[in-house]
Amino acid sequence: MRLLIMGPQGVGKGTQAALLSKNLDIPAISTGDIFRYNLKNETPLGLEAKAFIDKGLLVPDELTNKIVKDRLAMDDAKNGWILDGYPRNESQVEALDVMLKELGTPLDHAIALNADRSVLMERMQKRAEIEGRADDTPEIIAKRLDVYAHETAPLIDIYRNRGLLVEIDSTGGIESISKNILAALR
Ligand code: AMP
């Protein structure tokens, strides 16, 4: 199964992607995690992306599309995957369309997780305390939510119009949200 998991920061995309990965035996691919790995290891990609990530801005499409293309071409992605944090704008949707066409593997569903802003802020605050992510300061969180509202939220309509959207309420327990997602995919 080939899936996108979408929704604002703090809605639980990473957590749910990990559970789906286990349940469906497909890799969860997070562009944010790939960038963070490269930042930590100070690779050329990490150094190029750093200035954008530190400001809560999107890394340029050219760079981001290439890491996704390379990742989807890997062996463990042959039988499916869950993309978390990509696509983030319309140009990335188009780039993904081209990649999938070239691979001959259409997308099955786009899962949109929904939660109130107060729930998102609370979860991100908690994550900031636990993980100590450099981009989890109040200013950068606000910037990232802003970028999400302007550039990424409109993509949900694109996948709705294609008949691929599965919308899930992401308040409540982690396990019950995961069950709801799996039930909706079946
Ligand atoms: P995330 O963990 O998904 O919130 O991503 C953390 C940061 O990585 C974002 O604020 C962006 O700077 C960068 N990033 C992750 N995914 C993308 C993407 N699809 N396009 C551009 N930048 C991204």
UniProtKB/TrEMBL annotation:
A Pfam family matched in the record: ADK
Choose any GO biological process term that the UniProt entry carries and state it.
AMP salvage
Which residues are recorded as binding AMP? Answer: 31, 36, 57-59, 85-88, 92, 133, 144
Localized where?
Cytoplasm
- In what pathway does it function? Purine metabolism; AMP biosynthesis via salvage pathway; AMP from ADP: step 1/1
The record ties this protein, via PROSITE patterns, to: ADENYLATE_KINASE
Q: Where is this region: NMP?
A: 30-59
Oxidoreductase among keywords: no
As one GO molecular function, the record gives: ATP binding
Gene Ontology terms: cellular component? cytoplasm
Q: Which NCBIfam families does the protein's record reference? A: PRK00279.1-3, PRK14527.1, PRK14531.1, PRK14532.1
Record text on subunit structure and interactions: Monomer.
Q: What is known of its domains?
A: Consists of three domains, a large central CORE domain and two small peripheral domains, NMPbind and LID, which undergo movements during catalysis. The LID domain closes over the site of phosphoryl transfer upon ATP binding. Assembling and dissambling the active center during each catalytic cycle provides an effective means to prevent ATP hydrolysis.
Q: What does this protein do?
A: Catalyzes the reversible transfer of the terminal phosphate group between ATP and AMP. Plays an important role in cellular energy homeostasis and in adenine nucleotide metabolism.
Concerning HAMAP family, the annotation shows:
Adenylate_kinase_Adk
Family assignment from sequence similarity = Belongs to the adenylate kinase family.
Query: What's the name of the protein?
Result: Adenylate kinase
